[in-house]
Write a structure and sequence with these properties.
31% strand, 36% helix, 7 helices
């Protein structure tokens, strides 16, 4: 397809990934070095962003005379297992992935609050961080994931006093639950559907418990 703003399509894809994407959190930029490292790192599988073509809604202006049919958009992430493509994460599932990795920067999450005040609320994501820690307890391996996330209230579909401290606490609880659901749904898909370790759990076990890792490395995918 023809680039809309840049001189070449490759430059436009780069700009969409690195400039526009942080505002919406629909993908995670991955360069060739990061991709290659994930391919050869024990206990870690690779990811890469998905770019697809689509037919724009409008075909007016000078671009329509050249090529009115297609433009490019980000469309989530591709999930690999070792050197094979296993499947894809939708843009919504990608938001869950970004929260798990502590890379969520922008975009909107919608939720509802119920009770005395019922309304739909849009939260504008602003920043996040995460910590992934392997723990061995009673001879059982567990992975503890702590996500810290912040957001602003961008829109409220109802008459609720958003300045009320109790409402603020309720909104905070609703937002936290939504982030947790996004993260858990993404984690379930990459683990159960694709049996892929794109979050690098195995690599963290390798670093934290090297002797234990050597005993389970061959069975890690199972």
């Amino acid at each position: 397809v023809l680039p809309e703003l840049e001189r070449t399509l490759s430059a436009e894809i780069s700009e969409v990934l690195n400039i526009a994407n942080p505002e919406v959190s629909l993908a995670l930029p991955v360069d060739l070095k990061q991709f290659a490292e994930a391919m050869v790192t024990p206990g870690k599988d690779a990811l890469c962003p998905v770019v697809k073509t689509m037919v724009p809604r409008t075909t007016e202006g000078p671009r329509a005379q050249k090529e009115p049919s297609k433009t490019i958009i980000l469309d989530g992430m591709a999930v690999f297992k070792q050197d094979r493509l296993e499947g894809f994460l939708s843009p919504l599932e990608t938001k869950g992935l970004l929260y798990l990795l502590g890379q969520a920067r922008g975009g909107v999450i919608t939720a509802h609050i119920k009770g005395k005040h019922t309304a739909g609320v849009s939260f504008l994501m602003s920043r996040s961080s995460s910590k992934i820690k392997p723990v061995i307890k009673d001879a059982r391996l567990m992975i503890e994931i702590t996500i810290n996330a912040e957001a602003d209230i961008s829109e409220v579909g109802g008459d609720i006093p958003v300045g009320d401290p109790e409402i603020v606490r309720q909104l905070s609880t609703v937002f936290a639950a939504e982030v947790k659901t996004l993260a858990e749904n993404t984690l379930k898909k990459v683990q159960k559907n694709y049996k892929s370790d794109v979050l690098g759990f195995g690599n963290k076990v390798h670093k934290e418990y090297p002797e234990y890792w050597r005993s389970i490395e061959k069975e890690w995918n199972e």
